[in-house]
């Protein structure tokens, strides 16, 4: 009986063990499902928080961009304002300088007017004793005479320059002609030398021609004599 009960007991023990393992597995499965449920919930919460964080980041990014844009605009405006201020200050300084220069010029003109007032009095006296009715007519007359005098000086200068240029050209022409005359004189001397040499050669050739003629006459006489002797011998 003990031998026959042992497999049965072992089987019962295995069944009990299997049941315990099944219960443990069910508990673990239930625990796993619960944990998966918790993980799913937490995952959903994480996704929701991530979406919220993304929305917040986008909103924060837009806000930062707007803030940067406003800051850049503010800096740009401040820079433009500084530039305008500096430009206005520069223009103000330049205007002050121009005003000071105009004041100095005005003072100089006043001093010059004061200095030349005596000439105005002189011109008024000239008008009284001359054919002119106003000082301006005297000034116009003076300017006309000065312009005519200037034109005359310019004309005289042009004539002087033309005269000097003509003199230079004449000197050049004279130098060229003197050089040509010297060249012609040298050629004439060479031609005279050649002529003298030719005359000397003519005398020499005439002498040689006379000698040739004399020799020819002698040869002709000798030939006649020889011919006569031959004729006599032949006869």
Protein model, in words:
The chain is 97% helix and 0% strand. It has 235 residues and is mainly α. The protein starts with a helix and ends with a helix. Residues 12-128 form the DUF4200 domain. Residues 72-112, 167-201 form a coiled coil.
Using the CA coordinates, give the radius of gyration: 71 Å
Helix content: over 70%
- The fraction of residues assigned to DSSP E strands is under 5%
Query: Counting H and I runs of at least 4 residues, what is the number of helices?
Result: 2
- Low-confidence spans: none
Distance between the termini: 213 Å
Shape type = flat
- Class by alpha and beta content: mainly alpha
- Strand tally, please? 0
User: Averaging pLDDT over every residue, what do you get?
Assistant: 82
Main sheet overview: none
Topology as a string of helices (H) and strands (E): HH
Keywords: Coiled coil
Organism: Ibidorhyncha struthersii
Pfam families: DUF4200
Coiled coil: 72-112, 167-201
Features:
single chain, 235 residues, flat, DUF4200, CFAP_domain-containing
Describe the structure concisely:
Helix content is 97%, strand content 0%. It has 235 residues and is mainly α. The model has no long low-confidence stretch (mean pLDDT 82).
Fold topology:
Blueprint (H helix, E strand, L loop, with lengths): L1 H128 L5 H100 L1
């Amino acid at each position: 009986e003990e031998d026959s009960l042992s497999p049965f007991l072992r089987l019962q023990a295995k069944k009990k063990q299997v049941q315990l393992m099944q219960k443990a597995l069910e508990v673990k499965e239930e625990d796993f499902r619960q944990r998966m449920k918790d993980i799913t919930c937490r995952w959903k919460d994480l996704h929701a928080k991530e979406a919220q964080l993304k929305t917040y980041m986008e909103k924060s990014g837009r806000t930062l961009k707007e803030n940067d844009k406003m800051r850049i605009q503010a800096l740009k405006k401040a820079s433009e304002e500084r530039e305008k201020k500096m430009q206005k200050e520069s223009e103000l300084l330049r205007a002050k300088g121009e005003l000071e220069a105009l004041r100095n010029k005005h003072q100089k003109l006043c001093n010059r007017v004061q200095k030349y007032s005596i000439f105005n009095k002189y011109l008024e006296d000239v008008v009284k004793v001359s054919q002119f009715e106003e000082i301006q007519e005297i000034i116009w007359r003076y300017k006309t005479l000065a312009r005519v005098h200037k034109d005359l000086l310019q004309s005289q200068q042009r004539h002087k320059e033309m005269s000097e240029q003509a003199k230079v050209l004449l000197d050049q022409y004279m130098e060229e002609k003197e050089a040509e005359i010297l060249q012609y004189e040298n050629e004439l001397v060479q031609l005279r030398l050649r002529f003298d040499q030719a005359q000397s050669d003519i005398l020499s050739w005439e002498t040689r021609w006379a000698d040739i003629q004399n020799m020819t006459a002698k040869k002709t006489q000798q030939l006649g004599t020889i011919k006569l002797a031959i004729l006599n011998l032949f006869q």
